[in-house]
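TICKET: design request
STATUS: open
ATTACHED STRUCTURE:
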C-alpha cells in the first residue's frame, strides 16, 4: 500500500514538474521577427528601433533587403556598389545584434515575379516567422511598392506545402504588419500598434550611420544637400539624429496612448508604428502583447 501510494505521489510530482517546465518554456519562447525592405537601409528606418528592442530581449530578428542596392549612388554602381551596401547592411545588423540578409535582385528593377515571391516565401519559412513586417504597396518608389506586393502575395503561400516544397511550409500563418508611411491615397496608414523607441533611438541612428553610401553620400546628393553633411564622425551622427528624429503624428500618439497609457504616451519622443495587414493571422490584443513584449502590463 505504501509503495503504491509512493508511486502515485512520484507520478504526481513528475506531472507537476512537467507542467511547470511547460509553462516556463512557453514564457521563454523566442519570437521570430522578419522584416522586408526594398533596399539595404529601408528596414533600419521603419523598424530599426523595434529590431534593437527585440534583440535586447533575446528574440530572433532577421532584416531582409529584397534588392542589392546596386543603383543607389551618384558615382558608384553595379557589383562594387552592391558589395559595399551588403557590407554596410551587415555592419548595421551587427551593431544591434540582428541578422541582415541582402537578396541579389537589381535595385530599381524589382518586379512582383514568381521567382522573387518564392525567395520571400523561403525567407519566412527558414526563419519560422511569427511576425512579418513590410511596406504597404503604395509608395513613391516602385521597389518599395513591389516589396509590399511580394510580401502580400507570399502571405498565404507560406502555409502551402506544394509551393516551394524544398523548404518546409509553416504550420501557422504569421501575423503580417505594415511599416508606417505618410501616403494618403488610396488610404492613409492606420497605426494599430505603436512602440516607443526612446531607449534605443541611439542604436537606430548607429544603424543608419553604418550605411555611409546612403545617409552621407547618395541621399544628400539627391536632395541637393551634400554640402551640409559634416566631415567629423561625431558631428555626422548628431546631424543624422536631427534629420531622422521625426515628429510623432497625432494618429501614432493616439496608438501610443492605447498601449502605454495617456500620461506615458505624452512623454514619448520617438516611436515606430505598424498597421495590421488583412492577410495572414488576425491577432487579438493578447496576441499583440505577446508579439510586442514592450508594453506595460494592462491594468
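STATUS: resolved
RESOLUTION: sequence designed for all positions
ATTACHED SEQUENCE:
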Amino acid at each position: 500500500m505504501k509503495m503504491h501510494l509512493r508511486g502515485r505521489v512520484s507520478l504526481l510530482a513528475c506531472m507537476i514538474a512537467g507542467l511547470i517546465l511547460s509553462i516556463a518554456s512557453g514564457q521563454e519562447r523566442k519570437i521570430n521577427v522578419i522584416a522586408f525592405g526594398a533596399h539595404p537601409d529601408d528596414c533600419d528606418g521603419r523598424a530599426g528601433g523595434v529590431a534593437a528592442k527585440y534583440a535586447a530581449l533575446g528574440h530572433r530578428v532577421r532584416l531582409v533587403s529584397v534588392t542589392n542596392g546596386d543603383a543607389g549612388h551618384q558615382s558608384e554602381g553595379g557589383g562594387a556598389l552592391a558589395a559595399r551596401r551588403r557590407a554596410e547592411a551587415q555592419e548595421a545588423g551587427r551593431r544591434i545584434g540582428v541578422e541582415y540578409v541582402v537578396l541579389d535582385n537589381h535595385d530599381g528593377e524589382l518586379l512582383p515575379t514568381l521567382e522573387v515571391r518564392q525567395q520571400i516565401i523561403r525567407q519566412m519559412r527558414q526563419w519560422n516567422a511569427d511576425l512579418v513586417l513590410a511596406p504597404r504597396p503604395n509608395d513613391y518608389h516602385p521597389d518599395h511598392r513591389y516589396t509590399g506586393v511580394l510580401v502580400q502575395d507570399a502571405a498565404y503561400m507560406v502555409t502551402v506545402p506544394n509551393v516551394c516544397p524544398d523548404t518546409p511550409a509553416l504550420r501557422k500563418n504569421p501575423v503580417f504588419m505594415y511599416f508606417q508611411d505618410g501616403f494618403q491615397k488610396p488610404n492613409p496608414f492606420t497605426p494599430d500598434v505603436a512602440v516607443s523607441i526612446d531607449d534605443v533611438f541611439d542604436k537606430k541612428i548607429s544603424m543608419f550611420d553604418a550605411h555611409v553610401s546612403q545617409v552621407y553620400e547618395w541621399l544628400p546628393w539627391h536632395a541637393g544637400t551634400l554640402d551640409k553633411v559634416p566631415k567629423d564622425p561625431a558631428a555626422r551622427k548628431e546631424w543624422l539624429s536631427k534629420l531622422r528624429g521625426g515628429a510623432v503624428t497625432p494618429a501614432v500618439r493616439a496608438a501610443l496612448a492605447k498601449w502605454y497609457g495617456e500620461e506615458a504616451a505624452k512623454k514619448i519622443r520617438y516611436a515606430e508604428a505598424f498597421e495590421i495587414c488583412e492577410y495572414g493571422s488576425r491577432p487579438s490584443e493578447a496576441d499583440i502583447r505577446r508579439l510586442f513584449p514592450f508594453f506595460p502590463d494592462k491594468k
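CLOSING REMARK: Residues 2-27 form the longest helix (26 residues). The two ends are 50 Å apart (CA to CA).
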